[in-house]
Amino acid sequence: MADDEPGRSSHIPEGLEATPGILALYEKYGARYPWWVILVSMTGAFATLLTGTIVNVAIPDIMGALGITIDQAQNIVTIFLAAGTVTMLMSPWCMRAFGIARTYVAALSVFAVSSALGGFATTGEAMVLARLVQGAAAGLVMPISMVLVAQVFPVHRRGMAMGVMSVGTVLAPALGPTIGGYLVDDLSWRWVFFIAIPFVAVSAPCATFLFPSREETGPKPSFDWTGVVLCSIFLVGLLTGLTEAQSEGWYDDRTLIPLSIGVVACALWILWETHAPEPMLDLRLLRHFGFVGAAIVTLTVGVGLYGSTYLFPLFLQQISMLIPTDSGLIMAPAGLAMAALFPLSGYLADRYSKRGIIAIGLVLVAWSSYLMKDADAFTPVATMVGWYVIGRVGLALIFPALNAAAINALPLELIPSGSGMINFLRQLGGAFGVNLISFALLARTTAHQAESLETQTWDNSGTMEMMRLVQEQFAYLGLVGYQSFEMSFSYVLAVVSSQGAMLGYRDSFVLVAAILLVSVLPAWMLRPEPKNQSAIAGKPQR
Questions:
Q1: Which of 260, 320, 367, 508 is most buried, most CB within 10 Å of its CB?
Q2: Residue 482, CA distances (Å) to 211, 456, 461 in order
């Protein structure tokens, strides 16, 4: 449509697909409107996503302060992801029922209050409850941000827009451990919850002016309570089963019962959504082949992103014996490199094959994790920084192209549902990824430790030599006889345990690499952009 056509503002660019409410705000605020939307959306999304990973480096301190076990600490991470996973699918209904502005501001307000409650928590139960509410509120923010960014930029510039948006949204999980390390070491673990509140204080008031109000007239659409309940049972059942499997094994009733309930609930949920009058899971999305490919890749990338972000700082603290601040500093260069590359990768996504860019990114992230198979307590810091940077460069290539490919495959009326689905799958992959990687880490560590302990016999010359050398050192401290012998044997067992943990981490990183490599196959389901979109961009699609 030409700019001089009646009823069209000169500020509205060609190729824009947006609702009337957004078009009206575009005309009100002018050509700078999309950049204000990106800035406000990115600030709110940064706050909610930062909280998803910043807690990881504070886990040891939280365990000590609240007196909780490692399984309970893992729940602090996964409950946040699980709660947000459910509410992401509720975001299209909330936008229709209350409008984008009111939903966004309400979600951020609840998020800020629950963040404060998490910071003041004195028991493990209070912490889990705060994280549950915090995650549920956070789950509404990211889909809204993606819907807005997709509509305030023309179709042929969505890759660039997603790249700029990703500076905040994917940089937050990457920089979370760095910021968290400083807060834990210099202030207190409680500050990892308080740090997000100032970002909310900036984003929420601006959203009341820049985001559209409710556009639909008449009564609010019916809410899919049955779908929400079934989806919640599905997630809780599977996540509980995976957590119990780590301590009880796969064949224990405490594992099998919740897993079975989760699988049945998932089947019933999908069946219900095919007949629900206002489904939270819009199955019409599955008719768009390109979106299906993007959805599958998003799920597996979520496993790799959250799994590696959970695994890497733990390796640095438990194997390399670094304090949280130092482990965060090692991860910082990778986050900065990723932020710098996002706009460029978005620009490339608008002009070249999205599936090719995504495939290259997946290979780089997989390679980064695979290199960790050789890591140990003596691996130079510079080497690990380089390995981690490779992975984050890959992520910088993946996300703008992947988000743009998913949204571009859909008509305007399905973009809110598509945005909710994409974010749901990324979060779902993250929730299951943390659980699966934790299970793999525990299983492989236990296996390696058991294998090594079997060789620690009196006939093992290496064991005897190590004990002799240790006893010599104890002799300088005045420890001799049985006491010296007992302590030297305990030292050998500690070395074996540490070696088993290191090998367990190595195997877990290889597992992450394998998952990401498999993701290259569905990436090729993404089809090239329609020729008319390439023509608008002024470049032939390759």
A1: 508
A2: 74, 19, 20
Place of tokens 């992959």: 429
Reference 299, options 364, 362, 370, 255; nearest CA is 362
4 pLDDT more than 60? no
Token digits of residue 221: 């659409």
Question: Rounded to an integer, what distance in angstroms lies between the CA atom of residue 350 and that of residue 498?
Answer: 48
pLDDT band at 38 (very low <50, low <70, confident <90, very high): confident
- Structure confidence at residue 112 (pLDDT): 92
- Distance (Å, whole) CA 154 – CA 26: 12
pLDDT in tens, 275-311: 877 777 777 887 877 788 888 888 888 887 777 777 8
**129-172 pLDDT per residue, tens:** 888 899 889 888 888 887 887 777 777 777 777 777 767 666 67
Q: What is the pLDDT of residue 495?
A: 65
Stretch 360-367: mean pLDDT: 89
Q: Indicate yes or no: pTM above 0.85.
A: no
Amino acid letter, 517: L
Cβ neighbourhood burial of 469 (10 Å; 0-12, 13-18, 19+): exposed
DSSP 220-268: PPPP-HHHHHHHHHHHHHHHHHHHHHHHH-TTSHHHHHHHHHHHHHHHH
Nearest partner of 111 among 54, 55, 45, 191, judged by Cα: 45
Q: How far apart are CA 38 and CA 34, in angstroms?
A: 6
CA pair distance 213, 196, nearest whole angstrom: 25
Domain-by-domain residue ranges, the chain?
20-214+278-448+500-537, 224-277, 449-499
Residue 356 burial (CB < 10 Å; 0-12/13-18/19+)? middle
What count of other Cβ atoms lies within 10 Å of the Cβ of residue 125? 12
Report the mean per-residue pLDDT for the chain.
Answer: 77
Closest CA to 124 of 164, 71, 67, 177: 67
Residue spans of alpha helices (H) in 58-123: 59-66, 70-98, 100-119
